[in-house]
TrEMBL record:
Keyword Protein biosynthesis among record annotations: no
Domain annotation Gfo/Idh/MocA-like oxidoreductase N-terminal: ranges: 7-121
Protein name according to UniProt: Amc1
Gene Ontology molecular functions: nucleotide binding; oxidoreductase activity
Length: 353
């Protein structure tokens, strides 16, 4: 089998997870480290043993042996970099979100279709052991009909995280903050498990903004599943706890509560004997390996990257493909729109002073 030649564009916080995932595969060469910051590119290449370094993505895309590219940069740059890579005939794994706007995201899915290249948006938690098990249980009817859900992420990001970045905490660079960045996964996984969500209402706030951020640090939304289940979703980056997620799904036959932390934990699966037995089998199985980068990113980049490399070779449809990324982007934008609308609605009850 011919080696797959891969390049990493953007050498920041999550880039090590990409090198780790591709390096673990047989017949893959991770060749290029590309970052517009020469020091970042050089030190990343040295640390991970990558043979080629550049500050100019055009050099990567001009390499005829490069088959695929990870786009691991700030949100506003995704559209331009992904479009250029697809136009150059490369397959693309882009970090979430697919793009800043639905229009840009739609243009990218059309371009992937036209060029016949794989475009996958990172949603690594769709590959978590607990999440895939819950998805199977829902499919097998072990929860019955979903009626309710409670989904939350509390995490802590300090002033330096925003103040030290030219894109985080800005509408132009990040497109929002707490939801589109940290809260993305809990929303994406819940949308996937419930079979789709629409927005009933939302509010976003600056409860304790860090490092001069102009975007939301806290957001809450009320969402509805396809058969009417009501889901509350909350996210904040202003907690004193670094990372803690909870996803609770309540069905007419059974309920589950699990997290997207590392290692992913099933906290509850109850309501019928079949579900309890499935949960016991899951929790007794072999547990997780150590994550390659920042702990709460988990280990499932490895699984998505293995799926991506297989899709490049055999063309199968991934569970985290560009359509899934676009659908989650649409939901994110609907929630932000509802939150902006909420701000325009005058309060009927006076705040208690
Ligand atoms: N899946 C996850 O769990 C996860 C975790 C963290 C970040 N992310 C996502 O990964 C992406 C990057 O996040 P990060 O925290 O690594 O960011 P970062 O700011 O730490 O790193 C981004 C790097 O991209 C470089 N860059 C920007 N524009 C470039 C260009 N045109 N060409 C080459 N290099 C360029 C920057 O110089 C920087 O070094 C974002 O989309 C973020 O939401 C995902």
């Amino acid at each position: 089998m011919k080696s797959l030649v891969h390049a990493v564009v953007g050498c920041g916080r999550v880039a090590p997870n990409h090198v780790d995932g591709f390096s673990a595969l047989p017949d893959v060469e991770v060749r290029w480290a590309c970052d517009r910051d020469a020091t970042a590119a050089r030190s990343f290449a040295r640390e991970h043993g990558l043979p080629r370094v550049t500050t100019d993505v055009r050099e990567v895309l001009a390499d005829p042996e490069v088959d695929s590219v990870s786009v691991v940069t700030g949100h506003a740059t995704h559209h331009g970099l992904v479009a250029a890579a697809l136009e150059a005939g490369k397959h693309v794994l882009v970090e979430k979100p697919l793009a800043l706007s639905v229009e840009e995201g739609t243009a990218l899915t059309s371009l992937a279709e036209r060029t016949g290249r794989v475009l996958s948006v990172v949603s690594q938690h769709r590959y978590d052991r607990v999440v895939t098990a819950v998805r199977d249980w829902i499919g097998a009817g072990l929860l019955g009909g979903l009626v309710s859900g409670v989904v939350s992420l509390q995490c802590g990001r300090d002033d330096a995280y925003y103040a030290g970045s030219d894109w985080r905490g800005t509408y132009a660079g990040e497109g929002g903050s707490a939801m589109v960045n940290q809260g993305y996964h809990a929303l994406d996984v819940t949308r996937w498990l419930t079979g789709g969500l629409t927005v009933v209402g939302a509010a976003a706030g600056h409860t304790a903004p860090r490092g001069g951020m102009e975007t939301e640090d806290t957001l809450a939304a009320l969402l509805r599943g396809p058969r009417g289940a009501l889901v509350t979703y909350q996210v904040t980056v202003a907690s004193s706890i670094t990372w803690r997620t909870r996803v609770e799904l309540i069905g007419t036959r059974g309920s589950v509560l699990f997290d997207l932390d590392h290692p992913g934990t099933l906290h509850l699966a109850d309501g019928n004997e079949e579900l309890r037995a499935a949960a016991a089998a899951l929790t007794s199985a072999e547990v997780e390996q150590a994550p390659p980068g920042i702990g709460y990113y988990g280990i499932s980049h490895r699984s998505q990257i293995a799926d991506f490399a297989a899709a490049v070779r055999d063309g199968h449809r991934m569970v985290a493909d560009d359509r899934a990324g676009l659908d989650t982007l649409v939901l994110l934008q609907d929630i932000y729109r509802a939150a902006r609308h909420e701000a325009a609605v005058p309060a009927l009850s006076a705040p208690v002073g």
